[in-house]
Each structure stands twice: as structure tokens, then as C-alpha cells.
Amino acid sequence: MQDKEDEQVLTLIEEFLAARAARKPSPHTLQAYRRDLVAVAQLVAEGATPPLPLDMLMITALTPRVLRTAFARFATPRAAASVYRAWSAWNSFFTFLVADGFVAGNPMSAVDRPSAPIPQPKPLRGEDTPEQLLEAVSRDDQRQRHPWPERDVAVLALALCAGLRLSELLALRVASITGRPGERRVEVSGKGGRPRVVPIEPELDEVLNGYLDSRRRRFGAQTVRPDSALLVDRHGEPMRRGGLQYLVESCYRRAGITDRVPRGAQLHALRHTFATRLAEDGANASEIMRLLGHVSLATSQHYIEVTASQQRAAVRANRTNRALGRLLGGATAGADEA
């Protein structure tokens, strides 16, 4: 084992993040790792006797007892999902340290964590909301400074009809749309670099062609090369994360449906709407798993279970069922009196 007495925690965190970067995670994922690792390390440094500056915290200070105390403090103001995510980050961090010989073992088994949260689907609310959104955004809105309805509809349609994540949308190239007419598909670089192929129906193909035609008119044919980013901003530059998020939020406002977007979902609500409608229309968990690029079949199965629960609730709310309940209630009362 390497000499670890003078190994600073912050230095090792950066080495860990550099190693993770080789797996090509999204920048958001790396930022979340850094944020959780530094936050708990800061609590350890503050709890030392005497308290230490964070850059003076050494790896030898991270004992099971110290980590339990730090995580207890970390958990107090946070939701269970946030605590679980931080625990997972630290578990991965120590797995890396053990593999590289900085520590003899992983102390995280001695630190309690909440159960893994089951992510709840957050589709757009309202039966016809996706259609209303697409219709509203497809119209020219003179209140916009730089209207580009063809591009905006293409963004929404790729999320609603192909279930793409934000990072997957940003990674698309013009050449990602492949295949002959009638057999078109989009080749996606998914989460963790896992590739998948999603079929494109003629309607989405037409939307994408219309967008690319409008892009040629705006910026010239030379800007639509196969290796060019598929989605660009009003200057013809590749869209970035913040710009894409803002675009989707502005589309919600233009359509007047902000009250139907689950809190914290934003663009992901479009992907969840795609998955939920797949389940409603009879797709099985394996099909949903392949189309959305899920790692676990259980994640895909959850859409089916939630959809079944929603369908049961809808049937329960049916006015005829309520009337039948009143009728049966009256019949029971009459029988009691007899």
C-alpha cells in the first residue's frame, strides 16, 4: 500500500473525478459527485478537534466513526434521495481508493444509508397536454424576438416521440438520423455512453426534415454537415445545456401549460410522457427498457405499475361507479330495515 499519511482528501477527490471522467459521464453527474464528496468532507473537517481547513483534511481522518457522524449531520436537512446519492458517491470514492492502494478497506459499509428511492414517473399532466404543447409551439409567435418554430417543435418531438434525455439531445449529430424512408431511426449515445437505436415514425421524420430545411435557409447548406450538432441556437451554434433547458421552459410558457409540468421535471417530463404513453398503449417492460435505455428492467416495469394504478384511479373516479355505489348503499339500507 502506498504511503497515505500525507494524502489530502481534496487531492484524492480530484483524482477520483479524473478517473470517472474516462467513463464519459455527463458534466452534471461529475458536478454532483464533486458536490457530495466535498460537502461531507467539509463536515468532517469542521467536526475535527480542533476544526481543520478543508485543504488540510487527510485521508487517515476518514474513519467509520467520523463518517457516521458527518453523514448524520449531512442527512438532517436533506431528503432521503439526496443522502442516498451522497452515500453512493462516497462508496464509489472509497472503492477507487481501495483499488489504487490508498486505503486498506471501504468504511462505507459501517455508515447507514436510506433505502434506494424508487423514482416516480413525472409525465405532463392532462390527457391532451402534449398535443396542446406541440400545436402552440408550431405557430409563429410574434412576441418572440427570434422565433424559430421548426427548431422548437423538433426539440419537443424528439423528447416526446423518442424519449431522449437532455444530454442525449445535446449529443445528437445530423448523421444520428439514419435509415431509408419508412425505416428511419435515431442513433443515441445514452447514459454512461451506452448506445441505443430508437425508431422514427414518418411524422417525426417530417418534423426533423422541416427543421433542417429551415436551418439551411437561415445559415446555409454548409452548416448542416453530417458531423454538425443536430440542435443549434439562433446563432447556428450547438445548443448547450442551459440554453436547451431555457428553450423547453419557454415552450411551456408559450403553450400556457406551466401548471401541468411536474415540479423539477422540465424536459424530463417529456421523456416520462413518452414512457408513460408506451405503457398505456400496451408496451411491455422489456420494450420500454430498450427504447429508453434503462439499465434495470425494474425501472421500466415501474412505468407499467404506475400506469396501472392511474388507470385504476380513473375507473374509480367514474361517475357511473359512484352512482352504482349509492344504489348499492340504498339497497343495503333497505335490506337492514326489512
From TrEMBL:
Keywords tagged on the record: DNA integration, DNA recombination, DNA-binding
Protein name per the record: Integrase
Organism: Planosporangium flavigriseum
An example Gene Ontology molecular-function term: DNA binding
InterPro entries registered for this protein in UniProt: CB, DNA_brk_join_enz, Integrase-like_cat_sf, Integrase_catalytic, Integrase_recombinase_N, Integrase_SAM-like_N, Tyrosine_recombinase_XerCD
Superkingdom as given in the UniProt entry: Bacteria
Domain Tyr recombinase, chain residue ranges per copy: 119-316
One Pfam family in the UniProt entry: Phage_int_SAM_1
